[in-house]
Amino acid sequence: MVATAFFVMHVQVATRFLSSSPPIYWFASYVLTSHKGWGYLIWGYSAAYILIGTLLFSNFYPFT
Fold first, then answer.
1. Quick check: 50 and 56 in contact, CB under 8 A?
2. Could you give the dihedral angle defined by the CA atoms of residues 33, 38, 44 and 47, in that order, rounded to the nearest 10 degrees?
3. Which of 46, 14, 13, 15 shows the shortest CA–CA distance to 28?
4. Which of 29, 32, 52, 62 is the least crowded, having the fewest Cβ atoms under 10 Å away?
5. What's the rounded Cα separation, in Å, for the pair 13 and 22?
6. All residues at 6 or more sequence positions from 1 whose CB lies less than 8 Å from its CB, including other chains
7. Are residues 16 and 64 in contact, defined by beta-carbon separation less than 8 angstroms?
8. Measured distance CA(16)–CA(46) in Å, rounded
9. Burial class (CB in 10 A: 0-12, 13-18, 19+), 48
């Protein structure tokens, strides 16, 4: 899936395609529960992505 997304798809399509892939979320949940330092980093990235994405989307800027 990653190779197809990297070589064939547009970046917006690839972002939506890969965000629906369960292994990404399985890995993130594993890291959140087992590695505290990396867990905080993933949590912070997710929170920043949501906040910045909301601000950009509401001002008609792309964020994906």
1. no
2. -50
3. 46
4. 62
5. 17
6. 17, 18, 21
7. yes
8. 16
9. exposed
pTM of the predicted structure, to 2 decimals: 0.65
Q: Please check whether residue 58 is in contact with residue 64, taking contact to mean a CB–CB distance below 8 angstroms.
A: no
In angstroms, the first-to-last Cα distance of the chain is 18
- The residue type found at 49 is Y
Asked if 40 contacts 31 with a C-beta cutoff of 8 angstroms, the reply is no
C-alpha to C-alpha distance for 45 and 55, rounded to whole angstroms: 15
**Token code pair at residue 60:** 């008609």
The string of pLDDT tens digits covering residues 8-59 is: 988 888 888 888 889 989 999 999 999 889 999 999 999 999 999 999 999 9
